[in-house]
Amino acid sequence: MAAPSHSQGYGTERRGGGTTQVEVDGVIRGFTEGVQQLCGNIPDPAFRVDCVADYFDWLADRLPQTQEFREAERIIRDAASQLNRVARDNASTTKRPAVFRLGNSSRQTSRAVIPVAPERQARARSAALAIVEEAETRLLRSADRSQRSRVAFANIAAIVGDSSAVLLRAS
Questions:
Q1: Is 2 exposed, middle or buried (0-12, 13-18, 19+ CB in 10 A)?
Q2: How do residues 80-106 score in pLDDT, each as one tens digit?
Q3: Is 130 strand, coil or helix?
Q4: Phi then psi for 101, rounded to 5 degrees?
Q5: Is 143 exposed, middle or buried (0-12, 13-18, 19+ CB in 10 A)?
Q6: Distances in whole angstroms, Cα of residue 100 to Cα of each of 12, 15, 136
Q7: Could you say which DSSP state residue 91 is in?
Q8: In this model, does residue 1 exceed pLDDT 50?
Q9: HSE on the CB side for 164, CA within 13 Å?
Q10: What is the pLDDT of residue 129?
Q11: Nearest by Cα to 131 from 58, 71, 76, 59
Q12: DSSP secondary-structure letter at 103?
């Protein structure tokens, strides 16, 4: 099984077989820490939309690769793509994309993230918030399966929704 293309956060393996709640909780914790500690602490808010997009891809890469989580992976990957599109459509012409690293740790963005132009940040942030909200809603609606799925999807939806706090931070 191929390793995911992203290197940030905890572990690099995709799960192929059964999944425990502990594994899902570890992925959730890694996503939350990455978004809050890395994306949330980038001094220039111009980079936050695409940083969050990068971590949505990170989350999709690490969800258990089972039928049970396939829909969640699809929803999150779709949101990541839309967030990246918002950054690209509103990209700065004066700032260059950059890779960000959290202090001396190995946690970093998997690619250079695209900065949003200062005059377009409010519009991009508004679009990004709508994308995050829609992903959260879709995840909650998809959680109508087993009790275990319902809990996992609700937890994933909550952390996806919590990423909006990073987008709202002005500086």
A1: exposed
A2: 999 999 999 999 999 999 999 988 777
A3: helix
A4: -125, 145
A5: buried
A6: 19, 27, 26
A7: B
A8: no
A9: 17
A10: 96
A11: 76
A12: T
Q: Read off the tokens for 96.
A: 């260059």
CA 26, CA 147: separation in Å to the nearest integer? Answer: 19
**Given the structure tokens 């690769």, which residue do they identify?**
65
Q: Answer whether 110's CB lies under 8 Å from 54's CB.
A: yes
State both tokens at 138.
């879709």
166 within 8 A of 52, measured Cβ to Cβ: yes
DSSP secondary structure code for residue 35 in this structure = I
Residue 81: which of 109, 101, 54 has the closest Cα? 54
Angle (CA) 114-79-142 rounded to 5° is: 165
Helix ranges, 18-146 (H): 21-33, 48-62, 67-89, 121-142
Helix (H, G, I), strand (E, B) or coil at 98: strand
With contact defined as beta carbons under 8 Å apart, do 109 and 38 qualify? Answer: yes
The torsion angle over the Cα atoms of residues 19, 60, 45 and 108, rounded to 10 degrees, is: 70
Give the C-alpha separation, 3 to 11, whole Å. 10
Residue 113 β-bridge partners: 98
Domain boundaries of the chain, sorted by first residue: 35-168
